[in-house]
Design brief:
With 190 residues, this protein is mainly beta. It has one helix at residues 114-120, and strands at 9-15, 20-29, 32-43, 46-56, 62-71, 74-82, 88-90, 93-94, 103-106, 127-135, 142-153, 156-161, 166-172, 178-181, 185-189. The chain has a 15-stranded mixed beta sheet with strand order 8-7-6-5-4-3-2-1-15-14-13-12-11-10-9, covered by helices on one side.
Length: 190
């Protein structure tokens, strides 16, 4: 579905497995896609507040990522830039282990599933594999993660990662935002 150029599309999720919420907005500016959000939740009894800003080009390829906030008393700041050739620079250092990854996957958020869903444009029954740069939580290390998406219906995808060690049926809205990530996140409003 087309996103109006003069406004963004926003969503609010509630954590199912622990106290927490997240809100995100998707906007298009100057030919790029901007996905911004904030997640607040508890992790092992510690409060977490993580803000993110992701910029993708017009073809939904990640170009920059910024995550800031805290987990308990620990400050978090991660910045990544992706060169057109697919070279990732994370916190000012070249990260060859994620070279060629097209998508960022924020381990703490349902928002980034939108990126491959929008980019791949799968027909019902079609399946594709991608390798994402996975920002793990709570270590905030970045590593490659092989994933596959299979479109099951107009509003659902089978998502697998880690060679099938993890699988979930994701429900999505017409913009590609996940509305139900079983046992973890559920949409509360948009």
């Amino acid at each position: 579905m087309t996103i109006p150029s003069d406004q963004g599309i926003s969503i609010l999720w509630r954590r199912i497995d622990r106290p927490g919420h997240e809100s995100a907005i998707l906007m298009q500016r100057e030919g790029n896609w901007h996905l911004n959000g904030v997640a607040v939740f508890l992790h092992e009894g510690k409060s977490c507040c993580l803000s993110y800003r992701i910029v993708c080009d017009s073809d939904w390829r990640t170009r920059s990522v910024e995550v800031t906030g805290w987990v308990g008393h620990s400050q978090v700041q991660v910045q990544a830039k992706v060169e057109p050739a697919g070279v990732w620079n994370v916190n000012g250092e070249v990260a060859p282990h994620v070279a060629g990854c097209t998508d960022i996957d924020l381990n703490f958020s349902p928002s980034t599933n939108l990126l491959p869903i929008r980019r791949l444009r799968l027909a019902i029954g079609e399946e594709k594999e991608v390798v994402a740069a996975w920002l793990r939580f709570p270590s905030f290390n970045i590593e490659p993660l092989r994933q596959s998406y299979r479109r099951l219906s107009q509003d659902s995808y089978r998502y697998q990662s880690g060679g099938g060690r993890f699988e979930a049926e994701l429900k999505v809205n017409s913009y590609g935002f996940v509305t139900l990530y079983p046992e973890v996140w559920q949409e509360e409003g948009s």
